[in-house]
Protein backbone atom coordinates (compact mmCIF):
# COMPACT_ATOMS: atom_id res chain seq x y z
CA UNK A 1 0.00 0.00 0.00
CA UNK A 2 1.11 3.55 -0.75
CA UNK A 3 0.19 6.37 1.60
CA UNK A 4 -0.17 10.02 0.59
CA UNK A 5 -0.34 12.42 3.53
CA UNK A 6 -1.40 16.06 3.36
CA UNK A 7 -0.54 18.23 6.34
CA UNK A 8 -2.89 20.88 7.71
CA UNK A 9 -5.08 21.90 10.62
CA UNK A 10 -8.66 20.68 11.16
CA UNK A 11 -11.56 23.07 11.54
CA UNK A 12 -13.41 25.66 9.52
CA UNK A 13 -11.25 28.55 10.82
CA UNK A 14 -8.12 26.99 9.22
CA UNK A 15 -9.72 25.70 6.02
CA UNK A 16 -8.45 28.37 3.61
CA UNK A 17 -5.13 29.15 5.31
CA UNK A 18 -1.64 28.79 3.85
CA UNK A 19 -0.84 26.06 6.37
CA UNK A 20 -3.61 23.87 4.90
CA UNK A 21 -2.30 23.59 1.37
CA UNK A 22 -1.44 19.91 2.08
CA UNK A 23 -5.11 19.22 2.91
CA UNK A 24 -6.12 20.95 -0.35
CA UNK A 25 -3.78 18.68 -2.33
CA UNK A 26 -5.34 15.59 -0.69
CA UNK A 27 -8.83 16.88 -1.52
CA UNK A 28 -7.79 17.39 -5.15
CA UNK A 29 -6.25 13.92 -5.32
CA UNK A 30 -9.37 12.36 -3.76
CA UNK A 31 -11.46 14.07 -6.43
CA UNK A 32 -9.18 12.90 -9.24
CA UNK A 33 -9.06 9.30 -7.97
CA UNK A 34 -12.80 9.20 -7.21
CA UNK A 35 -11.98 8.22 -3.63
CA UNK A 36 -14.58 6.86 -1.21
CA UNK A 37 -15.59 9.02 1.75
CA UNK A 38 -13.01 9.57 4.48
CA UNK A 39 -13.05 7.42 7.62
CA UNK A 40 -11.58 8.25 11.03
CA UNK A 41 -8.79 6.36 12.80
CA UNK A 42 -5.76 7.34 14.91
CA UNK A 43 -6.78 11.02 15.00
CA UNK A 44 -6.88 11.27 11.24
CA UNK A 45 -9.22 11.22 8.27
CA UNK A 46 -8.28 8.69 5.63
CA UNK A 47 -9.62 6.73 2.70
CA UNK A 48 -8.31 3.70 0.82
CA UNK A 49 -8.58 3.51 -2.95
CA UNK A 50 -8.13 0.26 -4.88
CA UNK A 51 -6.22 0.95 -8.09
CA UNK A 52 -4.66 -1.26 -10.76
CA UNK A 53 -1.24 -0.31 -9.29
CA UNK A 54 -2.34 -1.36 -5.79
CA UNK A 55 -3.98 0.20 -2.75
CA UNK A 56 -3.53 3.91 -2.05
CA UNK A 57 -4.36 5.58 1.25
CA UNK A 58 -5.00 9.33 1.40
CA UNK A 59 -4.50 10.81 4.88
CA UNK A 60 -5.29 14.14 6.57
CA UNK A 61 -3.99 14.14 10.17
CA UNK A 62 -6.53 15.83 12.45
CA UNK A 63 -4.10 16.31 15.34
CA UNK A 64 -3.22 19.86 14.30
CA UNK A 65 -0.06 20.49 12.34
CA UNK A 66 2.47 20.30 15.18
CA UNK A 67 1.36 16.78 16.15
CA UNK A 68 0.97 15.24 12.67
CA UNK A 69 3.26 12.31 13.50
CA UNK A 70 0.85 11.16 16.23
CA UNK A 71 -1.60 10.23 13.47
CA UNK A 72 0.74 9.08 10.70
CA UNK A 73 3.02 6.81 12.76
CA UNK A 74 0.21 4.63 14.17
CA UNK A 75 -1.57 4.48 10.77
CA UNK A 76 1.64 3.30 9.09
CA UNK A 77 2.15 0.67 11.79
CA UNK A 78 -1.46 -0.54 11.66
CA UNK A 79 -1.47 -0.88 7.85
CA UNK A 80 2.20 -1.99 7.67
CA UNK A 81 3.26 0.82 5.31
CA UNK A 82 7.00 1.24 4.70
CA UNK A 83 8.76 4.64 4.69
CA UNK A 84 9.56 4.38 0.97
CA UNK A 85 5.81 4.00 0.30
CA UNK A 86 4.76 7.41 1.65
CA UNK A 87 4.65 10.93 0.25
CA UNK A 88 3.99 13.96 2.46
CA UNK A 89 2.52 17.16 0.98
CA UNK A 90 3.01 20.36 2.96
CA UNK A 91 3.45 24.13 2.83
CA UNK A 92 6.94 25.61 2.57
CA UNK A 93 7.89 29.18 3.49
CA UNK A 94 11.18 28.95 1.61
CA UNK A 95 9.49 28.50 -1.77
CA UNK A 96 7.59 31.29 -3.49
CA UNK A 97 3.88 30.77 -4.15
CA UNK A 98 3.59 28.79 -7.35
CA UNK A 99 6.78 26.78 -6.74
CA UNK A 100 6.87 23.05 -6.05
CA UNK A 101 9.82 20.89 -4.90
CA UNK A 102 9.95 17.14 -4.57
CA UNK A 103 12.54 15.51 -2.30
CA UNK A 104 13.28 11.99 -1.10
CA UNK A 105 14.65 13.07 2.28
CA UNK A 106 15.69 16.09 4.30
CA UNK A 107 15.38 17.93 7.56
CA UNK A 108 12.20 19.52 8.86
CA UNK A 109 13.52 22.93 7.82
CA UNK A 110 11.76 24.56 10.75
CA UNK A 111 8.35 23.09 9.80
CA UNK A 112 6.70 21.79 12.97
CA UNK A 113 4.51 19.26 11.15
CA UNK A 114 7.59 17.75 9.54
CA UNK A 115 9.43 17.79 12.90
CA UNK A 116 6.60 15.72 14.37
CA UNK A 117 6.64 13.27 11.45
CA UNK A 118 10.42 12.82 11.62
CA UNK A 119 10.22 12.26 15.40
CA UNK A 120 7.43 9.66 15.13
CA UNK A 121 8.80 7.89 12.05
CA UNK A 122 12.39 7.89 13.33
CA UNK A 123 13.78 9.01 9.98
CA UNK A 124 14.17 11.96 7.61
CA UNK A 125 14.23 9.57 4.63
CA UNK A 126 10.77 9.75 3.15
CA UNK A 127 9.30 11.31 0.02
CA UNK A 128 7.86 14.79 0.24
CA UNK A 129 6.29 17.42 -1.94
CA UNK A 130 6.89 20.97 -0.72
CA UNK A 131 4.31 23.50 -1.89
CA UNK A 132 5.55 27.09 -1.84
CA UNK A 133 3.64 29.68 0.19
CA UNK A 134 6.38 32.33 0.37
CA UNK A 135 7.56 34.32 3.39
CA UNK A 136 5.67 37.06 5.21
CA UNK A 137 6.46 40.68 4.38
CA UNK A 138 5.90 43.92 6.19
CA UNK A 139 6.87 42.59 9.61
CA UNK A 140 4.09 39.98 9.79
CA UNK A 141 5.01 37.12 12.14
CA UNK A 142 5.31 33.62 10.65
CA UNK A 143 2.51 32.06 12.77
CA UNK A 144 0.11 34.82 11.71
CA UNK A 145 1.19 34.44 8.08
CA UNK A 146 0.75 30.67 7.80
CA UNK A 147 -2.67 30.89 9.48
CA UNK A 148 -3.85 33.60 7.08
CA UNK A 149 -5.62 32.97 3.76
CA UNK A 150 -3.86 33.38 0.43
CA UNK A 151 -4.17 36.76 -1.23
CA UNK A 152 -6.34 37.17 -4.31
CA UNK A 153 -3.16 37.41 -6.42
CA UNK A 154 -1.69 34.21 -4.93
CA UNK A 155 -4.85 32.12 -5.32
CA UNK A 156 -4.36 31.10 -9.00
CA UNK A 157 -0.73 30.13 -8.33
CA UNK A 158 -1.73 28.00 -5.35
CA UNK A 159 -4.55 26.29 -7.26
CA UNK A 160 -2.05 25.43 -9.99
CA UNK A 161 0.43 24.03 -7.43
CA UNK A 162 -2.29 21.95 -5.74
CA UNK A 163 -3.18 20.50 -9.15
CA UNK A 164 0.50 19.87 -10.00
CA UNK A 165 1.16 18.21 -6.64
CA UNK A 166 -1.88 15.94 -7.13
CA UNK A 167 -0.64 15.09 -10.64
CA UNK A 168 2.81 14.27 -9.24
CA UNK A 169 1.19 11.91 -6.73
CA UNK A 170 -0.78 10.22 -9.52
CA UNK A 171 2.46 9.79 -11.49
CA UNK A 172 4.13 8.27 -8.39
CA UNK A 173 1.49 5.53 -8.34
CA UNK A 174 2.92 4.33 -11.68
CA UNK A 175 6.59 5.42 -11.57
CA UNK A 176 9.49 5.55 -9.08
CA UNK A 177 9.54 8.74 -6.99
CA UNK A 178 13.00 9.68 -8.30
CA UNK A 179 11.62 9.73 -11.84
CA UNK A 180 8.62 11.83 -10.76
CA UNK A 181 10.97 14.15 -8.87
CA UNK A 182 13.10 14.66 -11.98
CA UNK A 183 10.00 15.41 -14.07
CA UNK A 184 8.52 17.99 -11.69
CA UNK A 185 11.50 19.79 -10.16
CA UNK A 186 12.41 22.79 -12.26
CA UNK A 187 9.24 22.49 -14.36
TrEMBL record:
<comment type="subunit">
    <text>Monomer.</text>
</comment>
<feature type="binding site">
    <location>
        <position position="14"/>
    </location>
    <ligand>
        <name>tRNA</name>
    </ligand>
</feature>
<protein>
    <recommendedName>
        <fullName>Peptidyl-tRNA hydrolase</fullName>
        <ecNumber>3.1.1.29</ecNumber>
    </recommendedName>
</protein>
<keyword id="KW-0963">Cytoplasm</keyword>
<feature type="binding site">
    <location>
        <position position="112"/>
    </location>
    <ligand>
        <name>tRNA</name>
    </ligand>
</feature>
<comment type="function">
    <text>Hydrolyzes ribosome-free peptidyl-tRNAs (with 1 or more amino acids incorporated), which drop off the ribosome during protein synthesis, or as a result of ribosome stalling.</text>
</comment>
<dbReference type="GO" id="GO:0004045">
    <property type="term" value="F:peptidyl-tRNA hydrolase activity"/>
</dbReference>
<feature type="binding site">
    <location>
        <position position="64"/>
    </location>
    <ligand>
        <name>tRNA</name>
    </ligand>
</feature>
<feature type="binding site">
    <location>
        <position position="66"/>
    </location>
    <ligand>
        <name>tRNA</name>
    </ligand>
</feature>
<feature type="site" description="Stabilizes the basic form of H active site to accept a proton">
    <location>
        <position position="91"/>
    </location>
</feature>
<dbReference type="Pfam" id="PF01195">
    <property type="entry name" value="Pept_tRNA_hydro"/>
</dbReference>
<dbReference type="InterPro" id="IPR036416">
    <property type="entry name" value="Pept_tRNA_hydro_sf"/>
</dbReference>
<dbReference type="InterPro" id="IPR018171">
    <property type="entry name" value="Pept_tRNA_hydro_CS"/>
</dbReference>
<keyword id="KW-0378">Hydrolase</keyword>
<comment type="similarity">
    <text>Belongs to the PTH family.</text>
</comment>
<keyword id="KW-0820">tRNA-binding</keyword>
<keyword id="KW-0694">RNA-binding</keyword>
<feature type="site" description="Discriminates between blocked and unblocked aminoacyl-tRNA">
    <location>
        <position position="9"/>
    </location>
</feature>
<dbReference type="InterPro" id="IPR001328">
    <property type="entry name" value="Pept_tRNA_hydro"/>
</dbReference>
<comment type="function">
    <text>Catalyzes the release of premature peptidyl moieties from peptidyl-tRNA molecules trapped in stalled 50S ribosomal subunits, and thus maintains levels of free tRNAs and 50S ribosomes.</text>
</comment>
<feature type="active site" description="Proton acceptor">
    <location>
        <position position="19"/>
    </location>
</feature>
Amino acid sequence: MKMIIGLGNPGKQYEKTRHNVGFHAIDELARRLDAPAMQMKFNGAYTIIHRPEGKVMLVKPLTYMNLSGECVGPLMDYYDVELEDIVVLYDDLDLDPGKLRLRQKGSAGGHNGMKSLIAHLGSESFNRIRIGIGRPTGGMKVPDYVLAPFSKEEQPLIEEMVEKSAAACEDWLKSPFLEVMNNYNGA
